[in-house]
Amino acid sequence: MVFPRSSVQIAALCLTLFSSFIYFLSSGSSDPSSTTNLKNRIPGRYLYSPSLNTNIPLSESSPTAPSSNLPSVPIEEPPNDPIWDIQNATLGFQKIYAISMPSRTDKRDYLALMGLVSGLEIEFADGVNGSEMHPRSFPSYWKGTVALGDYGVWRAHMNVYQNMVQNRIQSALIIEDDADWDVLLRHQMVEFARGTRAIQNASLPMRSPYGDNWDLLALGHIGANNKPNKDQKYWVTQNDPTVIAESRRTWTRKPDVSTPKLAGDHTRIVMEISKFTGAAAYGLSLRGAATLLYDQALLPNAQAIDVAMLALCRHDPYGSPFCLGAYPMIFGRYRAIGPESKDSDRRASSNEAAAGSGGYQNSNERLQAESEFTVFSTSLNMWRLMKGEWVLPSCKPETDLQKEVNLSSFVFPRGQEVLVRPEEYRDFQMALAEQRKKDEVAKGQQAAKGEHAEVKKDGVKNVKRWVA
Ligand SMILES: *[C@@H]1O[C@H](CO)[C@@H](O)[C@H](O)[C@H]1NC(C)=O
Ligand SMILES: *[C@@H]1O[C@H](CO)[C@@H](O)[C@H](O)[C@H]1NC(C)=O
Ligand SMILES: *[C@@H]1O[C@H](CO)[C@@H](O)[C@H](O)[C@H]1NC(C)=O
Ligand SMILES: *[C@@H]1O[C@H](CO)[C@@H](O)[C@H](O)[C@H]1NC(C)=O
């Protein structure tokens, strides 16, 4: 597409006029505490200065893609190694799908720009409104609370798996429409791939850069557990500036890293995952997609999609680990300026809320866009990336390892393979000792009562999980 210079100029003029208009509104406000006019409360730095606009790198005949300042990632592997493909427009997956409601054009605008400045090809996969699903297409059995919002999300992810199976898509990255990522995403993914390959004992030739024996790659979870009860191989990268500090890890599901081998406020580990929460971003192989489709459509195991994935991680149906992942996560979440009620469509289509009001119960308003769980956020650096800047600030300079990154000179740290045995985790050993003590006491009490020590099944559930 060619932009005539005049339209750029018109755009610049519009921005200038618009900025002056907003400025007029904000300076003319007599009541700063007014809750009805958001514009009054937007801090002034959101107003584009017209001088910035002249830096958009567009030339008359061939507009320069704003992504031309993508850093190149140093890779030492041989040229026939598919790890090089991580630099391509789909990060070495065959496709990237973004699940988003067709009605949320605002979120698609966001994703389109994210794809542009990151050099990624993102295909939209339509989100599903649970209240518009045909009653007969609902799963006959459903574990957990029934909410139309959860059905909709479930179906949208299922549609992606169905599409992968129908079109024999070998691997895909699936993201939700509020995903955010670091400007160093390709560096992170190359290091992540080294980790997943080490855990799989992968060697050339290989088809996928991430190795050929994986089902699900948990990349954008909100918390994950490892498997401290077994000998485990990890890929550990210390002093990774894209790792958020412990103080920003507000979730509750955390791996046991109580061994110096895995510790560190800015250490990222690639690991086998036993459980994780959240489906904001994950990689899926064709085998993983087929397994989820089978488990959720043919077996009576249907449930909220992230819980469905978690259950497969716990069961490792192929004998090899079903889920590998990064901790902390690589993909974060973008939170737009404005009403928080617009963040999610899950509750909006829930049958629990009255029509028209569902999902809009939260009346908080965000006065500044935020990026959760990223350091050098692509969303918050969007304008700098569009201007072709190379030096980008971090989100939370007070806790992040580096306050800024210079893309042209930055060298990403290398990780290494680390083996950890169960006796090396301090917390796991303490928990074991605690459990042994409790068991002793319970045994003593039962003996005193003269009862038979009856084995109680843990967590009695009325619906049993089916295993193929
Ligand atoms: C990126 O690399 C993967 C793995 O080799 C490949 O399947 C995919 O088609 C490539 N994507 C693009 C856009 O070239
Ligand atoms: C990788 O090799 C080690 C032994 O070298 C073995 O214990 C482990 O199970 C292997 N992992 C996989 C996924 O094949
Ligand atoms: C879902 O569909 C219902 C009924 O058509 C509609 O009232 C509701 O607004 C829709 N929700 C979303 C999130 O699109
Ligand atoms: C970024 O790195 C490049 C290459 O080393 C250097 O020329 C440039 O001055 C650096 N910029 C800043 C602001 O440090």
From TrEMBL:
InterPro entries: Glyco_trans_25 (IPR002654). Keywords: Signal, Transferase. The keyword Signal applies. Residues 1-30 form the signal peptide. The keyword Signal applies. Residues 58-71 have a biased composition (Polar residues). One of its GO terms (molecular function) is transferase activity. Residues 58-77, 340-362 are annotated as: Disordered. It holds the Pfam family Glyco_transf_25. It comes from the Eukaryota. Residues 94-293 form the Glycosyl transferase family domain. Residues 340-349 have a biased composition (Basic and acidic residues). This is Glycosyltransferase family 25 protein.
